[in-house]
Amino acid sequence: MTLRQPHEDALVFAEDATVIRRTLVACSKLLAWAEENAGPGFREAVAAASQAAGLSRSPTDLAHDISLAIDHLDFSPSA
After folding, report:
1. Is-contact 70 24, C-beta < 8 A?
2. CB 64 within 8 A of CB 19
3. Which of 24, 38, 56, 75 could potentially form a cystine with 34 if both were Cys, beta carbons 3.0 to 4.6 Å apart?
4. pLDDT by residue (tens digit) across 40-72?
5. How much is the pTM?
6. Which of 3, 11, 53 is nearest to 65 (CA)?
């Protein structure tokens, strides 16, 4: 198996898109819950974790990226 290159289109079957979407929705809910319940160190912890992953995103930016990814799955053209 060869890893798809960034310039190559990906074909994702409906069942796979459903799993990806469900996971993204769970991430979104988890992020929202943690932001509401985790206390004042939450933003700093998310910033440190995302920076360590090479993303450098705030919780708000991560939530936006997750929503955008869900929209891409929901509104991408059919194969």
Report:
1. yes
2. no
3. 38
4. 788 788 888 888 888 777 778 888 889 999 999
5. 0.77
6. 53
